[in-house]
């Protein structure tokens, strides 16, 4: 049986423990929602002041050159590339995940329509994040294609001659289940299918090797494990074999070969720069860079491998403590118990009261979130573990709060059953 003292000792010997100092963690909060909105890095405050006062305030428009604003999408992109196994100048920061998904899905469709017009389907997972499905649905409508939704285990066996694109999120937002990117990409390629990977719940949380897996396209989020701040810009990566061959449909001037020549016709920039569209949001990009730097700081402490090792231990500890200490309350672990198939989150389910239990925990300062189910998917109580700032003792204390909330019946109070706009 693990005790609280065991957790205190584990924190004392944790080589990543100093990295927690990079963050502004409010008192009295155990934050288990870094998979939804990462914690604010301390450095972001000073950097934002500098951008506001010096770069925007004093230097004004000159900052596009003097402060290098114009290169921020590439500069921050190259930093993120190091976390996801992409090469130099292959990844840029731009727009939102939803918008970037539209760009890469369209580019993949353009490639496939030229190669093999018989392929007219996009394959995905039924419980993929809704925005991914909505974007794919819209593109399918535009092209007269179909979107096929399957359970995770069925995906591989449905890669056939009528499928153009496989679109998967590596770590499922509801269950934390992680696909084997290399294996599924290889299976897709063997069937003539292009693989588009969404890294929203992977970048900064699990080791990703886009080049090693030979993926075709990838996109991901800046405000989750990359700690870029609410609504931070997203990123987009395209394998160099595709980057110059086709363009994406949102042909804005920032993706032009020569934006400041103001030519009336579009000529895509070489390489990944053509995936830019409009003017980059400099304030948000500057904040995102601070967030990405907090993850890169782990390079001096064992890097992604060390982050992953701690993430596995934190998620394992949480699942084990819930099963040991909250038994008999109808809670069960939905996330895979095999760590190799699990991202950096643990999801629980309960036949009823999931929303209220999460609200009761939040009232105690333990912040997770709730994702409603339907007839085919269970309600989810979701807990994300960011190894940069989550301690073993936080896991212990969070489970203790959960045990108290269940044993006292506190979650049944009416105030915890009132739904807010954002869950
Ligand atoms: C968080 C998340 C998104 C978010 O998309 P936005 O365009 O930033 O709103 C998309 N897809 C997945 C899988 C996510 O986890």
Number of separate domains: 2
Rg for CA atoms: 22 Å
**The top level CATH class name of the largest domain:** Alpha Beta
At CATH level 2, the architecture of the largest domain is 3-Layer(aba) Sandwich
The fraction of residues in strands falls at 5-15%
CATH topology of the largest domain, by name, is: Aspartate Aminotransferase, domain 2
Task: Write down the secondary-structure element order.
Answer: HEHHHEHEHEEHEHEEHHHEEHEEEH
Secondary structure elements and their pairing?
Blueprint: H1 4-12, E1 30-31, H2 42-58, H3 63-66, H4 72-84, E2 91-94, H5 97-115, E3 121-125, H6 130-143, E4 146-150, E5 163-169, H7 181-190, E6 194-198, H8 210-213, E7 217-220, E8 234-238, H9 240-243, H10 282-296, H11 303-325, E9 332-333, E10 345-349, H12 354-363, E11 366-367, E12 369-371, E13 380-384, H13 392-408
Parallel strand pairs: 1-11, 3-4, 3-5, 5-6, 6-7
Antiparallel strand pairs: 2-8, 7-8, 9-10, 10-13, 12-13
This protein binds pyridoxal-5'-phosphate.
InterPro entries: Kynureninase, PyrdxlP-dep_Trfase, PyrdxlP-dep_Trfase_major, PyrdxlP-dep_Trfase_small
Function: Catalyzes the cleavage of L-kynurenine (L-Kyn) and L-3-hydroxykynurenine (L-3OHKyn) into anthranilic acid (AA) and 3-hydroxyanthranilic acid (3-OHAA), respectively.
Pathway: Amino-acid degradation; L-kynurenine degradation; L-alanine and anthranilate from L-kynurenine: step 1/1; Cofactor biosynthesis; NAD(+) biosynthesis; quinolinate from L-kynurenine: step 2/3
